[in-house]
Amino acid sequence: ATGVFDRDVSDVHALSYPNLYESGRLGLDLNFVRMTEMLASSLVHSLIIFVVMWYAFDSVDTMHANDYYGFGTSVFTWLICAMNYRIVFITTTINWVFIGAVLFSFA
């Protein structure tokens, strides 16, 4: 949603220096290899969260609340935290819309 606010250079500079957008035109960022790398990375991260939560949740037995609902809620909560952590670090334009969206995702 905040990509609308990303403005790296003015229109004049964009037309004067078309090589600035070479990676988009040549498909260097959104190709099969890069998408496979991102998919593998997300799979590894989700497995790390799952395994850590599996061992952490198995060792905690608070009032016999070790059920699927509690485990799923815990994993989902950590997935949201991990997603927000990643979004904060890859965003180049931080403004009130971005901060509001991140805060809203925790609500």
Give an overview in words.
By secondary structure, the chain is mainly alpha-helical. The chain has five helices and no strands. The chain has helices at residues 11-16, 22-26, 32-59, 68-90, 96-106. The chain is elongated. It starts with 10 loop residues before the first helix and ends with a helix. The relative contact order is 0.11. The mean pLDDT is 81.
Major sheet characteristics? none
Radius of gyration: 20 Å
Q: Determine the mean pLDDT.
A: 81
Number of helices: 5
Strand content: under 5%
Would you report the number of β strands? Answer: 0
What's the N-to-C terminus distance? 18 Å
Q: What are the low-pLDDT stretches, counting only 5+ consecutive residues below 50? A: none
What proportion of the residues is helical, as a percent range? Answer: 55-70%
Spell the H/E element sequence. Answer: HHHHH
Structural class: mainly alpha
Shape: elongated
Please supply descriptive tags for the structure shown above.
5 helices; mainly alpha; 107 residues
Summarize the structure.
This protein has helices spanning 11-16, 22-26, 32-59, 68-90, 96-106. The protein is mainly α and 107 residues long.
Topology:
Blueprint: H1 11-16, H2 22-26, H3 32-59, H4 68-90, H5 96-106
Helix pairs in contact: 3-4
